[in-house]
Every structure is written in structure tokens, then in C-alpha cells.
Amino acid sequence: MKQVGITGAPYSGKTTFFNALTHAGASSGGGRANVAVVPVPDERVDRLADLHESRKSVYAQLKFVDVAGLARGTGLSAQILGALREVDALAIVARAYGEDADPQAELADVALELALADLQALGGAAERATKKGRSGDKAARAEADLLHRAAQVLEAGRPLRAESWEAAELALFRNYAPLTLKPSLVVLNTDDESARQQAGLAAELAVAFNPQGGEGLAVPARLEAEVGGMAPGDAAELLAEFGVTVGALPAVIAAAYRMLGLLTFLTTGEDESRAWEIRRGATAPEAAGAIHSDLQRGFIRAEVVSYHDLIGVGSWEAAKAAGRLRVEGKDYLVAEGDVMNIRFAV
Ligand SMILES: Nc1nc2c(ncn2[C@@H]2O[C@H](COP(=O)(O)OP(=O)(O)OP(=O)(O)O)[C@@H](O)[C@H]2O)c(=O)[nH]1
Ligand SMILES: [Mg+2]
User: Fold this and answer.
1) Which tens digit of pLDDT belongs to each residue from 80-115?
2) Model pLDDT for residues 181-197, shown as the tens digit of each residue
3) How many CB atoms lie within 10 A of CB 271?
4) CB–CB of 9/71 below 8 Å?
5) Which residues share a beta bridge with 326?
6) Strand order across the beta sheet in which 299-306 lies
7) Staple 36 to which of 21, 22, 169, 243, CB 3.0 to 4.6 Å?
């Protein structure tokens, strides 16, 4: 399960946005982090469950962590840092409602705080690695070199994610989990009426925040949090009146999946129909491993049919009869919407 950390300036609406996504009803203020796990809505699971009369529908999950605000110039507390280091992606909330709103300045402040936190962590580590390298430790020397280069990037005012790093370098970074390396979604918290109007600004600011092409969303967080308690149809109707056609949760999930390079494959049967999250580029045995390590270890082959083909013919058996079921081996790269049955022996 991936984690998205919600951060941003104080009072930007982080907790309101968290509530809009999770309907957790967390109260504003207070220093503690709010945490909620939400199912990733996926109608494919529902359709498959209907098709095979599954006893259970199981969705992929995403965890949201709402941490306290990053005030300009105060540095990040150990608690905030700890929470943010754990997450896979960030959602940076900036206030875009009210006369005095200046989301661009807020985002710049947050970017600076995150960069300073990284600089401090990587700077200290660079020094230690340099000392170790002096005694002839080659690995330490390579690490010191990388950390110094990273510090230069940060000092030049660029987030680490703006550079391209080799796989080995990314592996070294993993020990420090730098915040500016994490994919970051820019979220403008707008008033009820102007989300649609501010979508363009959100996209613009996202690029400024992430030079390699960032994702930005404009969300009327308070409105979305309020409709959270309503029946889905009524909520959608009310949101549509304000020009919001895609709710905050599906929009954030789609952005998170793109930023994190994830895709969904499915399994189905009488027991359950289920969606699984996996990284793009994963092989069939890796997908099997997401289900259970035994399935990866004993992987023989995967029977695969695309969701659309399966729905088109009406059932797993029909897909087989129609020759739509492919048999794939261990080098097969899983595609979005693959419905898979893993053959294995342990
Ligand atoms: N008018 C208006 N008020 C909002 C909106 N979003 C949040 N607020 C209000 O702004 C205040 C702060 O919102 P929070 O969601 O608690 O902000 P926060 O970023 O979590 O604040 P901290 O965690 O204290 O940094 C609350 O009183 C909210 O009701 C909005 O879209 N419109
Ligand atoms: Mg809050």
C-alpha cells in the first residue's frame, strides 16, 4: 500500500482536504498527524464480482497522512520529518481562496522548507561518508560524491526530483528518503465556486514546483469535505453544480498512480474479485508475488485476459472458449487492466 503525505503551509486547508479525501472527519488544528486508509474505488472490481458472483469485492488501498503545517523559516520538527520520510508521494496544499491568497508564495515557502530539510540531512551524511572515504572505503567515497552532488542541486534551488539519477544512485538515496525526491502533487484549495477556474493555475504552479512536469489540481476542499456525508449520487450532483465533475479522491488517486508509476491488475473468482496495485514494468511473477510470495516462488505461468475483453465475452470460461485467454510466461510485463490467474506449484 502506498502512502501520500499531505503537507503545506499552516491553515492552507490540509486537514479539510484530508477529510475531503477520506471522510475521516478529523478535526482541524492539533499537532498530531491524521492517518486514514481508503479503498481505491474501481468499478471494474464491482463488474467482475457481479460476473462471477464473488463473495467479496476487495479494492486496492491508499494511505493518506495529514501532517502539521510547515511554517516558513521554522524548520521541520522531528515528528513532521519522520512522518514525511515514510510517504511515497506528497500532496502540497496551498490556500487559493480569500482575498489575500497567494498560493505561489506558499508553495515557494514549502519548497524551501523541504529543500532545507534535505540539505541538512544529506549534508550531515555527506560529511560522514567523506570521513569514511578517506580511509580508502570506495563505497563511502561514491556515496560522499553523490551526496555532495545532491547538495549542490539543492543549493541551486532545485528539488532532487528535477534531476535524473541512475538506479544505483536512487538506491543510495533510499537510506535518506529525501523529501524533494518524492513525486509531489500541487493542490490548490479553492473556494466552492472557483475550482474549475483555478485548474489552469494549479497546473502552472505544479510545473514551477516540479520542473520535469508536475501534477496540479484545484480542489474546493471545504465543499468536498461537506458532501462527504451525502449519498454518492447527491454529492456528485451538488459538486457538478459547482463545475466539479471529478471528485477530489479519484483525481488524487489518478495523479498518485501516474506519479508513482503504478498500474492495476485484477483477479476474479467465486471467492473474491480484487484489484491489485503494482509498479509499471512489473513482470507476471512479480504480480504473482504481490498476491502471495508462494505464487511468485512457484510461478509456472499466468492466464491473462484484458478486463475489456473479459467483460465483452461475459465470463472467464467464455474468454477461454473464444481464445481471448493468453498464456504468459515469466517475462510477461503486466498491463493495466489485466485480469490474471496465476498457475503455480510449491
Ligand atoms: N472559506 C473556506 N474556509 C476553509 C476552506 N478550507 C479550509 N477552510 C478553513 O480554514 C481553516 C483551516 O483549515 P484546516 O483544514 O484545518 O487547515 P490546515 O492546513 O490543516 O491547518 P493546520 O493543520 O493548523 O496547519 C479552518 O477553519 C477551515 O474551516 C475553504 O475552502 N474555504
Ligand atoms: Mg491540519
Assistant:
1) 888 899 999 999 999 999 999 999 999 999 999 999
2) 999 999 999 999 988 89
3) 12
4) yes
5) 304
6) 56-58, 272-279, 262-267, 338-344, 299-306, 326-328
7) 22
Contact 336/317 with Cβ under 8 angstroms?
no
Distance CA 177, CA 342 (A): 34
- Give the distance (Å) from ligand 2 centre to CA of residue 21: 14
Rounded to the nearest angstrom, the distance between the alpha carbon of 64 and the centre of ligand 2 is 13
Nearest CA to ligand 1 atom 12: 11
Shortest-distance atom of ligand 1 to CA 29: 24
Going from the Cα of 281 to the center of ligand 2, the distance in angstroms, rounded, reads: 36
Note the pLDDT of residue 188.
97
Instruction: Return the sign of the alpha-carbon dihedral for residues 168, 257, 83, 191.
Output: positive
Class for the domain spanning 281-344: alpha beta
pLDDT at 275 > cutoff 80 = yes
**2-258 and 281-344 share one fold:** no
Map out the domains of the chain as residue ranges.
2-258, 281-344
* 2-258 CATH pick, 1.10.1040.10, 3.30.1540.10, 3.40.50.300, 1.10.10.10: 3.40.50.300
pTM of the model: 0.92
Residue 71 has pLDDT above 80, yes or no: no
Ligand nearest to the CA of 28: 1
pLDDT score for 30: 61
Beta bridge partners of 189: 95, 219
The pLDDT of residue 29 is above 70: no
Q: Which residues contact 252 (CB under 8 A, 6 or more apart)?
A: 4, 21, 91, 185, 187, 217
- Number of residues in the chain: 346
